[in-house]
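job 3f2a | input accepted
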Amino acid sequence: MIGVISLLVPPFLLSYIREKVIKKEESVYARVFHYALSVLFLNFVMILILCYGFDSRDNFFHKLNQYNEFALKYMLLSSILAVAEPYAEQFFRSRVAVKIKWSGCGWMKGRVNGKLVVGIYAAVLFLLNFIRIFDNNFWGDEAFSLLLVKKTIPDIIQGTAADVHPPLYYIFLRAAYVLFGDQGWACHMVSLIPCGLIIVFCMTAVWKTFGSEAAVLLITLACLSRNAVNYNMEVRMYSWGALFVLLAFYEMYRILRQERILHYVLFVLFSLAAAYTHYYCLLSVAFFYAVLLGLALFRRRLSVAKTTVSALCMAAGYMPWFVILFKAIRRVEKDYWIDSVPGLWQSLRYLFSSQFKPIVWGMVLLGVLLAILYETKVLRIERSAEGKITLCLSGEGAESSALFLWMVSGAVSILGTILAAVIVSKVMRPVYVLRYIYPVSTVAWMILAVSVARLKGKKIYTVLLLAYMLSVFAPAYLSTYAYDKSANKNLQETLAVTKEKMGEGDVILTDVSHMAWTIGPYYYPDIPVKNVKMSELTKLEKGGYWLIVEKQQEMGDTLERLKEQGFACEKVIGGGNLGTHAVDIYHLWDSGE
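job 3f2a | predicted structure (593 res):
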């Protein structure tokens, strides 16, 4: 009975809410028909989520009837989808128009509104990210996030102040933890939310301001490029930083175009959000302010009063955290884990996930250059009365448009962030790894997308670039998805075997730094974890121990020394998986000899 209720009640909720939201009167027969469709649609989506998200291949109806907890969770998630679908449908109904024209001798001719096609395309890309959130395999920094959010907000702020990151992302993650508990999918979802917001931003603001070509290119990069696929799910702050830097960059364009108070206010708010998300985001938006102040003070393109007030508001808003930032700098100056520094070219390639070939980079740079020349009227395309096309390249009459200044400011932010990181790392000590500049990648994506949208023949260039990106991004996505599924399955098997055998009083010993730091305490919260050097493991007190080492690490001498101390040894896991580490796990216990 409970199985029938689980399958039929959420679709009824969907039909009811849809009728209220869409506000369309229907006959009884139409309602019954739509309810039947809702039953099929909603439960089909749920089966997809269970199969590809939770890797469940069991008889769902049997599980619904036999396990009340499973049925409750099934109904809860199904009800959430039932509530969300009508509002999503209403959103596209209100913003997307479909036109189909018929003409010709029996052949269908006409066109479908492009926004509907792009909307479906964006929904598919978002779904490709969404199906990856049902994963519990975390690396060291992610496990740090998951351990930190179990604390109270004051403790979280204190903990991240002692680390090297601002607190905003952890507050978002804490909210998810309070709502859903210690659920891996909920933590991944927090990082995926910015991807959904970028899609909405592209379908509305970018589409209206720069055109459909810019929107579809930006959506593709934000959903399917290799770095985006990683950070859209990683339980870290980088996806949120990318969103806030992108929104601040867009508001800067609106300031250059209209200079309304609202745009300054939003610019400051998004800049503060970026700065409280990651220190490198603070550096990126700082260059935005430098450009605006320069344009106001030296070029008189903007109001000195408005730009100065916005900069002061930004400084005042960040002042509470500035002392902590200063302490973090002093602490990093003395000791930090980074030991090498990426170069400029490596960093620039990373902006596009290092997936663009040199020839594509050349075409991209050429396209951006042509767009800038055209925008500044240095390059003019003239057509004579006879239809002859003339390309005129001249500095006479050149001008700096708002779009040109905006694109230059984005380039200044990108290069400034990278060069500042490299220079500081060379002068002081290494403080830069490539993932730190991921948030400013969205600025590079926006510049590329807008440049293509400004070119003559933009539709052809968009199709060609889109085809190339899909040919490169899609195989990388499939490889990542396959690896994640395999690693997560291996993780679950590793945890099942080890947790079944671990007992009270056991101790985990490991020479894997992240394992001792966060991964071990996260996956085995009730078992003490100690960092040791296996080669120096000579004397242990009597008791039960678990040795976690990198896969295929030579352990012969160590195990022999421990056997001489009276310990029996069993290799429990060979080639297991914990927190993205391939590990071997040994169980030691007092043999009584």
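job 3f2a | The chain has 22 helices and seven strands.
job 3f2a | closed
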